[in-house]
C-alpha cells in the first residue's frame, strides 16, 4: 500500500516542484495616452465645443491588442451624431407641448410621451403596492 501511494504521489510532487510561469492576467486596461508637453491642470483632451482633430487619437482604445481609434473629418459623420449631447424633453415638457398643440409634435415625441407616461404610471402603481 505504501509503495502504491508513493508511485502515485511522486509525479504529483514533481509537477508541483517544477517552476511555472507567473499566471497571466485575464484582462488588462488599454494603453494610457501619453501627455506630451501638457501643462499641469490643462485639459488633456480636445474641447467639447470645437471639432476634434482629424487622425489617430491615443488612449481611446478599449481593447488590449486593438488598433488605435481614427477620427475622420466632421463631414463623414451623419447629422444626428451632433445632436446626441442634447437632453431629451421630460414627460412634463412633452405634456405641455401636447396640451398646447398636439399637431405640432412629431410622432417620435408622441411615442416618447406615451412611453414615459406609462412608465410613470407603472412606477406609481408599484409604489402603492409596496406600501400595503
UniProtKB/TrEMBL annotation:
UniProt region (Disordered), positions on chain: 17-53
Keyword ATP-binding: no
GO cellular component: mitochondrial large ribosomal subunit
GO MF: structural constituent of ribosome
Bias kind Low complexity: ranges: 17-27, 38-51
Top-level lineage group: Eukaryota
Family named by the database record: Belongs to the mitochondrion-specific ribosomal protein mL54 family.
Protein name, UniProt field: Large ribosomal subunit protein mL54
Amino acid at each position: 500500500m505504501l509503495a502504491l501511494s508513493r508511485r502515485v504521489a511522486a509525479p504529483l510532487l514533481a509537477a508541483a516542484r517544477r517552476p511555472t510561469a507567473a499566471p497571466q492576467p485575464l484582462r488588462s486596461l488599454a494603453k494610457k495616452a501619453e501627455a506630451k508637453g501638457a501643462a499641469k491642470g490643462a485639459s488633456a483632451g480636445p474641447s467639447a465645443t470645437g471639432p476634434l482633430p482629424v487622425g489617430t487619437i491615443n488612449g481611446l482604445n478599449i481593447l488590449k491588442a486593438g488598433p488605435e481609434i481614427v477620427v475622420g473629418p466632421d463631414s463623414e459623420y451623419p447629422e444626428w451624431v451632433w445632436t446626441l449631447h442634447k437632453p431629451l424633453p421630460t414627460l412634463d415638457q412633452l405634456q405641455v407641448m401636447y396640451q398646447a398643440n398636439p399637431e405640432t409634435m412629431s410622432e417620435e415625441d408622441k411615442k416618447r410621451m406615451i412611453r414615459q407616461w406609462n412608465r410613470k404610471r407603472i412606477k406609481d402603481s408599484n409604489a402603492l403596492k409596496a406600501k400595503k
